[in-house]
TrEMBL record:
Keyword vocabulary terms for this entry: Membrane, Signal, TPR repeat, Transmembrane, Transmembrane helix
SUPFAM superfamilies membership: TPR-like (SSF48452)
Gene3D superfamilies in the record: Tetratricopeptide repeat domain
Source species, domain of life: Bacteria
Record keyword Transmembrane helix present: yes
Protein name (database record): Tetratricopeptide repeat protein
Tagged with keyword Cell inner membrane: no
Annotated TPR repeat ranges: 43-76
InterPro entries, A to Z: TPR-like_helical_dom_sf, TPR_rpt
The organism of origin for this protein: Corallococcus exercitus
Residues spanning the signal sequence: 1-29
Length: 240
């Protein structure tokens, strides 16, 4: 086989380029170690933030920090902390879920396994109570809405009946009969009462009759006063 001497330098140059472009195993390991250290530092920082927020009672922030730490480095211990945050936030179903994941993903049985199982039972009970309360609230809301709908329907029907009676011809005779009965009870304003007499007082008979009686009484009194033997005006006794 005949080989050209001119192709040998080119092959050597290509081999050097490939060798320089491929990293050595030690360099790759160093890069991986650096990246791993950076991730661990970030996870440790999130873990510290979560602990501080938990101590301050800021459970929302603590939950967020622990979740970010687990995404950076999925350690089962972070799941326990996440479950604790959900328990403090009154999310029993989520807390029970993360407690179970903590036990399931731990390579060895954790030292707090018994405590975690008690917490799971407690969270399951609270979750059932919450679910019953939620259903009761929904049932109450449905009954309330149904009652309101019935009241509105009854009110609409009553208004419709009133409107139908107002425009129905059959209601007219009853209305006329009621008007006639009312007219019988109330006197007609068109009938005029007897007006008082317009005669002058000098032409009224009772005026002259009264004047005559007064004159008669006065005349009798004068006669009795001037009579020679006036009568005794006192009543006599029984023995007299």
């Amino acid at each position: 086989m005949i080989r050209s001497r001119r192709s040998e330098p080119r092959a050597l140059s290509l081999g050097l380029v490939l060798a320089m472009g491929t990293p050595f195993p030690a360099a790759v390991a160093a890069q991986d170690a650096t990246a791993t250290a950076a991730v661990e530092d970030a996870a440790r920082e999130r873990f510290s933030e979560g602990n501080l927020a938990y101590d301050l009672g800021e459970f929302d922030r603590s939950l967020k920090a622990f979740s970010e730490a687990y995404r950076l480095k999925p350690l089962p211990a972070f799941l326990f902390n996440i479950a604790q945050c959900h328990r403090q936030l009154n999310n029993p179903s989520r807390a029970a879920f993360f407690y179970r994941r903590y036990l399931a993903l731990s390579q060895e049985e954790p030292a707090n396994t018994d405590v975690v199982r008690e917490l799971i039972a407690e969270m399951d009970t609270k979750a059932r109570v919450q679910e019953e309360q939620r259903r009761e609230r929904e049932r109450f809301a449905r009954d309330r809405d149904l009652q309101r709908a019935r009241e509105q329907a009854a009110l609409a029907e009553a208004r419709a009946n009133e409107a139908r009676l107002a425009v129905s011809p059959a209601a007219a005779p009853e209305k006329n009969g009621a008007s006639e009965a009312l007219a019988l009870q109330v006197p007609d304003a068109s009938v005029k009462t007897e007006a008082p007499s317009s005669k002058p007082w000098t032409r009224r008979w009772y005026v002259w009759a009264g004047a005559g009686a007064v004159a008669l009484l006065a005349g009798g009194a004068v006669w009795m006063a001037t009579a020679p033997n006036p009568r005794d005006t006192t009543l006599g006794t029984v023995g007299r």
